[in-house]
TrEMBL record:
UniProt protein name: Aminoglycoside phosphotransferase (APT) family kinase protein
CDD domains the record matches: ACAD10_11_N-like
Database matches in Pfam families: APH
Molecular function terms from GO: kinase activity
InterPro entries according to UniProt: ACAD10-like, ACAD10_11_N, Aminoglycoside_PTrfase, Kinase-like_dom_sf
Domain Aminoglycoside phosphotransferase: 29-252
Keywords on record: Kinase, Plasmid, Transferase
Entries under SUPFAM superfamilies matching the protein: Protein kinase-like (PK-like)
UniProt entry tagged with the keyword Transferase: yes
C-alpha cells in the first residue's frame, strides 16, 4: 500500500530552508483529512503557517492530480476579485518527497461542510450564499488574457471535450458495469446544446466546502482545490452548485434536499441562478438541465476514480473513499433525471 498519510518532514524542511525566503523551523506537520485527490498538509512554524499540497505517490491516471495547474491558476488570480491563497513554491522534482508539490499560505477562517450551514443565523446563511454567488460571477468575468491564462485550456466546445475526457477517465477506473452511467454518457453526447461562445475560467469543483470565509464576517477569503480548473464554459460551475444542493441534507450528502430553504434564509435554485445572471448581465439560461446532468456525470466519474484508488491502495482517505465510491450509480441516475426534466 502506498503511504499518503505521512510526509518526509526532514526533506521538506531542508527544501524550504534552501528555497523559501523567510522560512525558519521548527516545523509542525498535520495532515488535512478533507479531500480525496491530492494529500494536503499544514506546515506550522513559530512565525508562519503554510500548506503543502502534493500529488499522491504511485501510478496515477493520465492528467489527474494536476498540482502544477493548481499552482499556476492561483498564482495568476492573486490580486484579482477572486480570493485565493498566496502561492510560494512549486517543486516539480519528484526526488524531494516522492511526488510534485507546492507551498502556499495557510488562510485562516471558517469552512462550511454543509450548504445549509446549520450553526448560522438565517441572515448569515443568506449573506454567505450571496457571497458565493458574487465570487462565482467574479471568477467568470476574469480577463484570462490579462492574467496570463489564455492557453490554460484548449479552444472548442467545452462540454464536448469534457464529456470525452471524463468518459475515458471513467472507463480507466471502472470496477463494475453501471447501466445508468452508460446511458448518461451516451445522452450527453447526443443531446449536447449548440455552443454559445462563452469561454471563461472555470473552477471545475465550485462548492461551499471548497471556500474559506472570514472568521468574523461573511466575506470569502479563498477558494480552494483548483485541480479541475480550465478555460471552459461558466455554466458548468453554476450547475455544480445546484447539483450539490439537490443531494440529501446532512454531513454525508452535504446537500439541501428536502429542506425548507425559505425558512432557513436560503435561496431557491431559481433565485440563485437569477442572481448570477443579473451579476453577469445575462437574460437567462437555456438547456440548464443538460448542464446539470453534465455535473452529475462528471462527479460520478470523479468518485469512481476515488473508489479505484481506494481499491488500489493509494487513496488519501481510504475509509471515506470506499463510502464515496458507493454513490456512483446514484449520481448517474440524478444526471439522467436532470436531462429528462430539461
Amino acid at each position: 500500500m502506498t503511504d499518503t498519510q505521512t510526509l518526509d518532514e526532514a526533506a521538506v524542511h531542508a527544501y524550504l530552508t534552501e528555497n523559501l525566503p523567510g522560512y525558519t523551523g521548527p516545523m509542525e506537520v498535520t495532515k488535512f483529512q478533507g479531500g480525496q485527490s491530492n494529500p494536503t498538509f499544514m506546515l506550522k512554524t513559530p512565525s508562519h503557517s503554510y500548506v503543502l499540497r502534493r500529488k499522491p505517490p504511485g501510478v496515477l491516471l493520465k492528467s489527474a492530480h494536476a498540482v502544477d495547474r493548481e499552482f499556476r491558476v492561483q498564482k495568476a488570480l492573486h490580486g484579482t476579485d477572486v480570493p485565493v491563497s498566496k502561492m510560494h513554491l512549486l517543486c516539480e522534482d519528484d526526488s524531494v518527497i516522492g511526488s510534485m508539490f507546492y507551498i502556499m499560505d495557510h488562510v485562516a477562517g471558517r469552512n462550511f461542510n454543509e450548504p445549509a450551514m446549520p450553526d448560522l443565523s438565517n441572515g448569515d446563511r443568506g449573506k454567505i450564499t450571496s457571497e458565493m454567488n458574487r465570487v462565482l460571477a467574479a471568477l467568470h468575468t476574469v480577463d484570462i488574457n490579462a492574467v496570463g491564462l489564455t492557453d490554460y485550456g484548449p479552444e472548442g466546445n467545452y462540454f464536448e471535450r469534457q464529456v470525452g475526457r471524463w468518459s475515458k477517465q471513467y472507463r480507466a477506473s471502472e470496477t463494475t458495469k453501471i447501466p445508468a452511467m452508460d446511458q448518461l454518457m451516451d445522452a450527453l453526447v447526443g443531446e449536447r446544446p449548440e455552443d454559445d461562445g462563452q469561454r471563461t475560467l472555470v473552477h471545475g469543483d465550485y462548492r461551499l466546502d471548497n471556500m474559506i470565509f472570514d472568521a468574523n464576517t461573511t466575506d470569502c477569503r479563498a477558494i480552494l482545490d483548483w485541480e479541475l480548473s480550465t478555460i471552459g464554459h461558466p455554466f458548468a460551475d453554476l450547475a455544480a452548485v445546484i447539483m450539490q444542493w439537490q443531494l440529501p441534507a446532512g454531513s454525508e450528502g452535504r446537500g439541501m434536499g428536502g429542506l425548507d430553504r425559505a425558512a432557513l434564509g436560503l435561496p431557491s435554485d431559481e433565485d440563485f441562478i437569477a442572481e448570477y445572471c443579473q451579476r453577469r448581465g445575462l437574460k437567462g439560461i437555456d438547456h440548464f438541465g443538460y448542464y446539470l446532468a453534465f455535473t452529475f456525470f462528471r462527479m460520478a466519474a470523479i468518485i469512481q476514480g476515488v473508489l479505484k484508488r481506494a481499491l488500489d491502495g493509494n487513496a488519501s482517505n481510504p475509509e471515506r473513499a470506499m463510502k464515496v465510491g458507493a454513490f456512483v450509480p446514484v449520481f448517474a441516475q440524478h444526471g439522467l433525471d436532470a436531462l429528462k426534466r430539461g
